[in-house]
Amino acid sequence: MKTVNHKCPSCNANLNYDPKTKGWICEYCGGKFKLEDLKHNEENFKETKVKKTEKKDKETPIEMDEYQCQDCGAKIVADKNTAATFCVYCKNTAILKNRLSDKFAPSKVIPFTKTKEDAIEAFKAVGKGKFLMPKEFAAEKNIKELSAIYIPFWLYSCEMDSHIKGKGTRVSTWTTGNYRHTKTDTYHVERNAKFKFERIPIDGSVRFNDAIMNSIEPFNYDELCDFSPSYLSGFLAEKYDVESEEAKKISIERAKQSCYKVLNSKINYQGFLPELKTGEVKKEDIQYVLLPVWMVNIKYKDKLYTFAMNGQTGKMIGDIPYSKSKAFLFWILIFIVSALIIGLITYFV
Amino acid sequence: MKKISLLILTFLIFIMPHTVFATVNVEERTEDDLKIWDDIEVNENNLDNILNTPKVDEDEKIYDFADLFVEGEEEELFNFITDYIDEHNMDMVVVTIDDNNKSDAKEYAEDFYDYNYFGKGKNYDGILFLIDMDTREIYVTTTGNALLYYDDARIDGLLDAAYVYMTSGEYYQAAKAFVVRAERYATEGYSSSADDYYIDENGDLIEKKSINWLLTLGIPTALSSIMAYIFISKHKGIKLATEADEYLDIPGIQYGQFVDNFLTTYTSRTYIGSSSSGSGRSGGGISSSRGSSGRSHGGGGRRF
User: Fold this and answer.
1) What does the DSSP assignment read for A64-90?
2) How far is CA B81 from CA A12, B76, B202, in A?
3) For a Cys-Cys bond, which of A109, A157, A341, B254 suits A290, CB 3.0-4.6 Å?
């Protein structure tokens, strides 16, 4: 087992990725580096053989692996999905290379552009326009844990032939004498089209809630770079544990719904009863990438809240609690104001 | 000669009751002595109206200027009317004219009532039925408390009752039908519309102001609940994606052939009832207007 670390090419100190400059800065000698500067260095990583002891603890079913920190020699314990972590003793980044190689080698990565400070500011602003939120909720002191994680994503692209078949009805009414006539014409309706979907992101990690990951979409794919482990220095990273086949299924289902929506918009009938809906994949492609996410764990009044920020665009989402007393006051206020208005109207009209 | 004089005599005897009783005793009105209720304000606008209204003996109750009733009929009608007045403490007047010197039946009826000493109580409660042979209209006018007894629907009922006989020329029957129907309504009590109105100290009809509690409480309950729901649902930021609209290349969509094949048609027919034109009056309620005297009157008329 080997862990990789990123050393400053000039002073050999630890090097972390800096989202602001989109490069690497050495905290000791102040040296700034680009990816090319490190590439050469990467080849010369000392590969430390670490005895891998798979702890099969009967009480804890989670499979934990042990690694040795390259810097201080301490043992690093990581669960089976961790690809990059920190040594608890010397705080240096440990990148677990075998978790990023072979079938786990990501093809691309979007580096972080948002810093810890950005995440804190974004959290403090979640209450904007949400006047039912308890006042103290969006305070920095409630942030229990803040972590920058490269989350494994599958990017699924495909071409899809979608087809909708059914019965459409057109209704017209007119009156003659004392009778109203209602004419219903029924048509056999078919719509089909070829659709192209580009890189639907599917969360590749079971540990992270799919809905949260959906909610911080979209990412700007223009900033996808070829993967290099150097991007991971200073961050946590995971490897996927959702297989690509599973991700495909989810993406196809999402794609189908979009196709149906478009085709339905082309059915101009008063009534439509679908008989057949299909979405057939013609050409597909799946890519494994790491995308940057800030996970923000909030503890407020003994309850835990999970917020997440898109590490590239800064979109912060989460379920914001509302104050019951504020909601009640709001309800009462609207009630009183509208009751007064309506009461006066019914009194005078 | 004797035969002829006998014939003339029998003829005279035969027609005398009609001519004698058909005459209405009318007093003279002058500008110095208008002979009207003290509380009516006289001004240049209504002076002519007053002077053009015959001053009659208010106890006769039946004023057959058009000479439509015969003696026995008038007596019978008079008995009905006095019973009504005693029973309900409202005045009742029946007038027939063949020359209307006012602009319409309504104005004649109201002026006739206001500029004679008709009416019971401080608001001159009472009802008047006019058969106007000149404009060919029957008109009912109500004053004071009578407005609460005779709402628009009941006025229509009174006109309905009289109208049937008007078309066939049975004028006495028409007047009698009016009196009988008016008596029936008064016995039934205030009209269903009366709850929404009251007569103020000037005899004017005032609509009671009331709050519609169902609307006043119902709409705000729904509104504030919907608003609270909308605002609270905005707090939920985590949603599972079910579609992939954002990743769809919209300009790249290639549509195939659209199929719209006509299959069947079906026409159904529903009876919706005759679209007869309703009367101008809206259901429910009491309408009132002010006459030249300044008093409020209800009522309505119908042409025959």
Assistant:
1) EEEEE-TTT--EEEEETTEEEEE-TTT
2) 123, 9, 26
3) A109
Contact call for B249 and A255, based on CB within 8 A: no
pLDDT digit string, tens, across residues A274-319: 999 999 999 999 999 999 999 999 999 889 999 999 999 999 999 9
What residues in A contact B270, CB-CB < 8 Å?
179-182
DSSP string, A92-129: -EEEEGGGSSGGG--SEE------HHHHHHHHHTTTTT
For the residues A329-345, what does the mean pLDDT come to? 92
Task: Give the chain A residue nearest B255 (alpha carbons).
Answer: A193
pLDDT above 80 (res A213):
yes
Residue A158: is it exposed, middle or buried by C-beta count within 10 angstroms (0-12/13-18/19+)? buried
pLDDT over threshold 90, residue B5: no
Check CB contact under 8 Å for B235 and A181. no
Q: Say how far apart CA B119 and CA B296 lie, in whole Å.
A: 13
Pairing of strands A303-310, A316-318: antiparallel
pLDDT digits (tens, 9 = 90+) for B252-285: 999 999 999 999 999 988 887 654 443 444 456 8
Mean pLDDT, all residues of chain A: 85
3-class SS of residue B83: helix
- In sequence order, the 6+-apart residues with CB closer than 8 A to the CB of B147 are B197, B199, B205, B286, B288, B296, B297, B298
Comparing alpha-carbon positions, the chain B residue that sits nearest to A315 is B237
Q: Which residues of B touch A338 (CB under 8 A)?
A: 219-220, 223-224
HSE value, Cβ hemisphere, 13 Å, CA-based, for A291: 31
Predicted TM-score of the model (pTM) = 0.64
Contact call for residues A102 and A90 (beta carbons, < 8 A): no
> Could you say which residues from 92 to 111 on chain A have a Cβ atom under 8 Å away from some Cβ of chain B?
none
Residue B281's SS3 state is coil
Q: Name which of A268, A278, A274 is nearest A195 in CA terms.
A: A278
Confidence of residue A55 (pLDDT cuts 50, 70, 90): very low
For residues A134 and A20, the model is more confident at: A134
Nearest to A318 among B215, B238, B267 (CB): B238
Q: What are the sequence ranges of the domains in chain B?
A: 37-207+282-303
Q: Which residues of chain B lie closer than 8 angstroms to A348, CB-CB? A: 209
> Minimal CA–CA distance to A151: which of A203, A214, A96, A189?
A203
Residue of A103, A110, A65, A101 lying closest to A232 (CA atoms): A110
Q: What is the pLDDT of residue B128?
A: 95
CB contact under 8 A, B239 and A322: no
- Closest CA in chain A for residue B249: A196
Query: What is the per-residue pLDDT for A114?
Result: 92
d(CA A5, CA A93): 6
A183 interaction partners in chain B (CB closer than 8 Å): 265-267
Predicted-complex ipTM score: 0.78
Domain B37-207+282-303 has CATH 3.10.310.50: yes
- Does A281 lie at the interface with B, CB-CB under 8 angstroms? no
Tokens 């639907």: give the residue: A200
List the domain boundaries for chain A.
3-99, 116-226+237-318, 323-349
Rounded Cα gap, residues A102 and A106, in angstroms: 9
A 10 A CB-CB count for B174 gives 25
Burial class (CB in 10 A: 0-12, 13-18, 19+), A266: middle
Q: What is the pLDDT of residue A39?
A: 64
